[in-house]
Amino acid sequence: MMTKRTGLSRLFYATYYSMKGLKAAFLSEAAIRQELIAMIILIPVAFYVEVSQIERLFLITSLFIVLVTELLNTAVEKLCDHVSTDIHLLIGRAKDIGSAAVFVSLVLACLIWITVLW
Q1: Which of 44, 82, 89, 108 is the most buried (most CB within 10 A)?
Q2: pLDDT category, 5, cuts 50, 70, 90?
Q3: Which residues of 23-32 are buried (b: 16+ CB within 10 A; e: fewer)?
């Protein structure tokens, strides 16, 4: 049985595996790359426009919500593809639901940006 890491060692390895996951997602998913490009453009915009600090926080948080949702969707899709490459009703539903979550997060981000900037 493998012993669990604790303290700074656990933090180091958790960070290492997280960065490894971000790299894998970036390299394998165009949607992740597109969302990161949008963040690189829109985060400076959030600091440029004259809005309150809380509105700025909403603008930036909405972008991170989209990225987090896309990462989770990518994880679900990769797991589904590992389990079976056959067409399967439940795997299709899982992928569709993950895609719907990304869509909802994008709608939320758009609504926040439109509302704050209007």
Answers
A1: 108
A2: confident
A3: eebeeebebb
Residue with tokens 């593809």: 81
More confident residue, 88 or 56: 56
Query: Which residues participate in catalysis according to the annotation?
Result: 70
- CA–CA gap between residue 114 and residue 98 (Å, rounded): 25
Cα dist from 29 to 34, 74, 89, whole Å:
9, 8, 23
Q: Is 21 inside any structural domain?
A: no
Number of domains in the chain: 1
pTM summary value:
0.89
The answer to whether 90 and 98 are in contact (CB under 8 A) is: no
Q: Within a domain: residue 64?
A: yes
